[in-house]
Amino acid sequence: MGRLLFIKSIEGRVLAGITMFVGMMILIGWVAINEEARMQAFVRQHTGRSIERGAELFASLCSECHGEEGYGADERAPGLNNPHLFGYDPVGVQTAAITNANRALVRLNKNIESLSNEMIDPENPPSDERQNEILAEIADLEAQIAEQQLAIETAVAERIEILGTLSQAVENGLFPLWDTVVDSDRTADNEVEIFFNSNGTRLAQVGWAGDLRGYIITTLIHGRPGSARVYPSSTGMAAWSQTAGGPLRQDEIEDLAEYILNWDKGSAWTNEDFGAVAQYGKPLADGSLPTGPQPEMVGDDVLGILARWEADEIVGSPTSGELLYSARFGCTDCHLNGASAPDTIGTLARIQNERLAEAGFAGYTVEQYLVESITRPGDYVVDGYSSGLMPDNFGGRMTDQQLADIVSYLMTQ
Amino acid sequence: MTILPFPSFLDDVKAKGFKKAVFEGIDDSVERLTAGLNVQDLREAFRGEAASRRPNPRLTPHADGFWLHMRPSYFNRDVTGMYPTFRLGWLSSYFVFFETITGLLLMLWYTPAPEIAYGDMLTILSNVPLGQLMRDMHRLGAEFMVAVVAMHMMRTWITGSYKKPRQFTWFSGLLLLVITGFLSFSGYLLPWDQLSLWAVTIGASMAEATPVVGDQVNLLLRGAPELGANGLLRFYLLHVLALPALLFVFFGVHYYKVVIHGHSLPPQKENIGEDSAKRVPLDKRVYFIPDMLTYEMFWLGATTFIITVLCIWFYHAPLENHANPQVTPLGTTAPWYFLWIQGALKLGDKFFWGVAFPTIALGGLALLPYLDVTPSRRYSHRRFMLTIAMLLISVTTILSYMGLAKFAVQTSAETEIVHELTFEPAHSKVGIGRTIPFDQMIVGAYTTAQTHGQDEMSANDMIAEFNAEVAANGQFEQMIQELKDQHLGANQLPLRFRSIPADEAPKLMRVMEEFSHHLDAEPIELPNVWGSLVITDNQAGLKRLDWIVSWDSVLIEGGEVQLDDNGDPILVYATELVAVVDDNGNEVLDENGQPIQEERTKLDEDGNPVPARRIYSDHLFIHEAAAYFD
């Protein structure tokens, strides 16, 4: 050790020293080159941890009124896991489509007009060749016009349908303030439309000029008074920031905002989401509270299920099916070794060679047998196993896709 | 007659010719810059040749120059080896300058205010190129510096170098040790994260024990009853201004004394009672230029290179969550170099062990050269003092160990276990529960019961049996209630336990095994225990993990589990309200005609008392991008 640190010759020391300095500069240069990526990774990681802390704060402070999953709570506070908050405006989307198509129509018509003028220009008549060209162009433009008109028709139809659904939502009490909108053009037919023109998204509704993050952070900092009309059991939202006398620091406010913004589905919001969330935390007309979109379950009508799969072209994925089978629905808890239920391994061969050979299953396909066994387990129990063991509620717990995945997985076994 | 209207370089050129004039000009400039060495002298020095000029020009920079006037012009060959100094003094000085440079760079990005400081840390890590490296280096350098200075002191003790005439050198060195400790400690607070806030709160609270002035000292230090904006500003000013100023003053004093008295020789190299450090025989002289200079430049490169390597691959300065005075983290300790005081505090009286004992210890050290006045520095003559030195090292080590959170701190086992599995990244460690890869966090409720006795039964059968058992005795329902209380969404409450998907999620399996292992290690405090991990989806890319411990309640008095004669824990039994009946089996009514109820131990069907079941839970959220598992 001593020998190593005490290089005897001066040249050795100078050389070793220079090597060390150069090595250090190379290392620091290497770090510097990678800094950009490292800093980006840090920002990603930090945002992730910020969302975690926001989730913790939300669960302990906000979920009481805004609901554990952000769907709002009875007469207390609006849903935040909510397309309305994130600017998804189902009517606006279609209105914009119609406006765009109309603009395109105006442009196309103008083009046709100028081409026609050229055709009949008395001072400068086009050549024969040019005339053919113009006719071809006009034909092309007319085709485009027809396309745009079809787009308008589709959008209008879609819009009417959405407004119909929204009237339902309005009736259900999802937008309790809609009847306070005063408009001279308002008639029984167009009142929903008029309401949505100015209330399609939360930011439009409150007339907020900034972005959503700013809106969320401002609300968190300052709170807001409660409306006795909409939230009879709410005392309003408290000011949460320390700057406004609340308990939270600015970084915690930002954590919360980060968590709330993480609910945004961007372009993946659907009209179903829109109709299923308590926009104002108001109970539905029947007194129940929206709990977010509930996926349609498969039920236990075996032939109906198979017909639906055929019609909607639902195809199962064995990979996802395996995970659902062993993890999500816990089928392997019993279907293992064949001790308490038939073993998973060999399913396909057993069905093909033994079950379908039985008289009761004449005309069955493997698929049908599997769907029936899962959704109606009580209908037939394999000899040697006790009946009533397998839960009979899987039809109410699986979607079409999930069942199709599991069936396709079992057909590989 | 000059060429230009004033004397100039051109006159030289005219007189000597261009080449000669340029060379002599360079030579002259070099000699001025080095305060005495011309080009030829430097060439000779770095070739290892003897100086050709007389008097020796290599001594002139020490006499005439500023930079080397404090450095000795030659050393005794006996003190330039690894022994006896181990270069610890040199390393201490190195870290003084290293910390100053890295610290100044960090100051560019730092504002000492509670609302801003933590954000500045994030900026340094996320938006300052090389910011992380600088912070790591400064932090690691600080830890090294404390260790090196302390070792330097012990080395001085062991070789007896504090003896006459170096008593005051020792004393100034001790001051430097204390200043170094406080410098490091004051820097601890600046990132304003949980680690710093609580380490410093604990450290500063020791001052509280001082009689009469304790509260005042504490208030002066913190600027308010609680550490806040004023406290942070004061610690910052201490860290960047007051303490460095003191450090540099005493650094100067200390080094001046070292040079004045010379580096003490290895004890066996000089006669007893004699100090011959300043009388260096000609054949033992190692000149600063060029030998020590090249050594030191080489060590400078090597040390900095090693620190750079350590900070790139092996060490990252910790940064925990934002400081929060409302949340006391489990297992908070003072910085490691103050652990010995924290350990001593566990021995009893706060004033004696927290104030009097460190003061006596440091006072004893300060007085050491004045108490131990025996002339001999030979090891064989100093058995008593060397024994004391070893005792000091041992006692400090033991006290530091006692200062660790795991020593004699009363925390209930279930809290400790769940914390062990879930704690946030601190000191480059993280709870194993956070390191499950995101795609292995498969939604479901899992139980440690599965990890028992898998040899006799398949996992699925175990789970099926366990599900039936906890459904029957109400423990599952108790767990669901606990989850509801912890704001787990109604749609997400588990229906039953399911087996751990060991194939898809091997890490999840390992965590559950560890969970089980920890629980089984506490049969006295947690009888009939089972643990559970409930994983649920919370948002896109965000999972929630609920950790639950369920066990039979035991009788605890004064923090100790009470045992019966067989050494088993005494259980607490559940009670229920039962209507009082008379001998005829009729309900007894009170004055208002209401049936009187009394509390009785709950019995099961066989008439055995049912133990009260306790449940504990904690939860954490894991985001896909949080990358605890990298």
Describe this structure in words.
The complex is a heterodimer of chains A (413) and B (630). Chain A is mainly α. Chain A has 14 helices and no strands. Chain A has helices at 2-5, 10-66, 90-119, 128-171, 191-199, 202-206, 212-222, 250-261, 271-276, 302-312, 318-328, 347-355, 366-375, 400-410. In chain A, helix 3 packs antiparallel against helix 4, helix 10 crosses helix 13 and helix 11 (318-328) crosses helix 14 (400-410). Chain B has 630 residues and is an alpha+beta fold. Chain B contains 19 helices and ten strands. Chain B has helices at residues 9-16, 18-33, 39-47, 60-64, 88-107, 114-127, 131-158, 167-189, 194-207, 214-222, 229-261, 288-314, 339-345, 350-371, 383-403, 413-422, 459-472, 475-485, 506-520; strands spanning 74-76, 285-287, 444-447, 530-539, 542-552, 556-557, 560-561, 575-579, 597-601, 613-623. The longest helix of chain B is centred in the middle third of the chain and has 33 residues, at 229-261. The model of chain B has no long low-confidence stretch (mean pLDDT 89). At the A-B interface, helix 2, helix 8 and helix 11 of A face helix 6, helix 12, helix 17 and strand 10 of B.
